[in-house]
Amino acid sequence: MITDDDIKIVAAHKEYEKxxxxxxxxxxxxxxxxxxxxxxxxxxxxxxxxxxxLFLLSEKSSDKLFASYFEPYTNVIAPISRSDKNKxxxxxxxxxxENKKYAEALxxxxxxxxxxxxxxxxxxxxxxxxKLENTNKAIAILENNLNDSNTWKDKFLWYLSLAYLKENxxxxxxxxxxxxxxxxxxxKKVETLSLLKKLE
Length: 200
Prior knowledge:
The protein has helices at residues 4-69, 89-98, 102-111, 118-131, 135-145, 150-166, 170-181, 189-199.
């Protein structure tokens, strides 16, 4: 015979099962909400990480390209002689330039600027600044003196494109190289086209 206690146990068990089922549904909803939050957070983190990685790779690529294409412009202003007697500040500056003593060379070059030699010396000063890691200063000098002389324009454009590349301003580097590739006088014609191809 079924007693009242048996009925109460069955009823309690049914209520227990209903409650358990409700809790499982609530838990499932909260887990799915919790999972969505984590999924969104993980996605954002992945995007940020990937962006950072791409930036670092492009920066390293720009640095490698700069290093492979950059070489200081040859001294054509004050060829070095063996004697150190009676040398001008300009000659000493170029001796330092050729001996890779760029800080001393920069000081002498800046002191030697005259109206007649300013365009040429600005090129050497910009190149020296690139060697000394003063890239923004080099860019300013190159941009300000770009159109001062047709004789030196191709050199200014070449070093300006390299300076932009060093600063990871790839679009400006490409634009400058395209301008340089159209110049009749281009002392780095092959390198210009090669670098342009690598950047595009």
